[in-house]
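Entry 14. Two folds queued back to back today. First construct below, sequence then structure tokens.
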Amino acid sequence: MTLTEERVRPQLDGVPETLLWTLWNRACEARRPDAVLRDPLAVQLVDSLDYPFEEKLGPPHPLFAQTQGLRSLCFDRSVANYTARRPEATVVALGEGLETSFWRVDNGTLDWLSVELPDGAELRRRLLPADPRHRVVARSATDLSWLDEIEDPSRGTIVTAQGLMMYLKPAEVREIIAACAERLPGGVLVLDSMPRWVTSLAREGKLRIGSLTIPPMHWSMAPDERQKLHSAHPGIAEVRALHMPPGRGTLGRLIQHQHRVPVYRSFSPAVTLIRFR
């Protein structure tokens, strides 16, 4: 069963088109009987889109699919941990693309604010189920007016930025972190970052997935540089690493424990939690 009667052809390029790659990997992982991430909605989304996924992005890749599944699960668990303590909190998902986290972690009382560029926002509205606690705001994450859309910050707020910050300029990343620290006391920001060699290849136009050229990346952060994020704002109380959940087989164990092996740590995305006073 698909989400729409007719398949939808996405009109995306640049950074917005990368949302199709992450969706493809989640769906490929979710189709497995031993999937690390249960995401039937991702499978339905792929089936609903008129897009040559395998032709453009390549066939299912065990490493990419499981890594994406575990990364999404890592973010899911961060949200679930926060909303377990503050069940009526607002979750703000920056640059969410076609992520389906809301339907994986919804506790029945949280509010969800998806902040996405206009083309991606239109796809979300068109393809995903409507819910009164799930709102879509069509604007850039760098337009900090999305903070005004949080209806009751006193209930708690967790902001996620999965697969986003690397496409922003360092000053823009710092501005988002500082604004969250200023406006969201008691809140949390979870983000991921790429190693410098990956961002360098992307800036040079040399990073390709199938026939898709990954757009330029501008911000990177080595794992041992996390504590420098404290300097973004005095309201930052804690900065710490989040590690991948247990995976499947030898490859899953490697993904989970990559942070312990320097040679692998420099090849992989790093997930960081920032807690505000």
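Second construct, same run, same settings:
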Amino acid sequence: MNGEAPVESVDRALVLLTALREGEVLSVSDAAGFLGVAPSTAHRLLSSLVYREYAAQDRDRRYRLGPALVPARAEPLTLSGVRALAHAPLERLHEELGETVQIMVRHGRNIRFLDGIECELPLRVGVRVGDEMPAHCSAGGKAILAAMPMADLERLYSQGLPEWPTARYRDLPALKRHLARVRQRGYGANLEETEQGVSGVGVAVRDRLDRPVAAFTVAVPASRFARDHITGMRDALSHAADEFRAALESEDGASQAQPIRR
């Protein structure tokens, strides 16, 4: 082996680390092109960084800065903290969409509504603060589940999916297939799956390590819900999620979120 090879390898790893610290999100092919090496070489370097937790791989198989290099938050993210960070994005969502908008978190196999702003039209969906329902039926719940690592999802549903009268998905394999589409589209949809007469769209809020910490949703009476409105809803919800994430990171000096304390 060439005596300079280990030094060259370390230098390449440091170049990747620098890119990740600057906020780059890299696929294997991105890293290979960045370094001018074969994809197999880039994959080995990225795998080594993941092993030491200097990098983390997301659900799209891209690499971002890992937990070893992301400073811990001074305080864990609490439910009241989620509500505070969500307040301004919820107000803007309500103004833009004109429908009931809410923020939720996952609570075991359920989602829990934390806050919301109700639509002002006579026919509207009410705000459900404090209520819980199965995550696999809810638009925001699906978005959160789709952002979870597969191993965590399988542990969560090791005893099967909870029963719910209007649920569309009754077993884990069917849910996994659906969540793959949720990841591809960038949103979860609820077509009268939580209750008859209510439909909606949800987008997950992720921390700097790409972990889902909450979800924004819009809930619409099914009689007024139009599929050609979904793209606009998704874009508005995604903007709210980005706003929440930016506030979360700036609140503690670009820090990561800890598991929510209840």
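Quick look at the second one. Strands lie at 55-57, 63-65, 100-107, 110-117, 132-134, 188-191, 198-206, 212-221. The radius of gyration is 20 Å.
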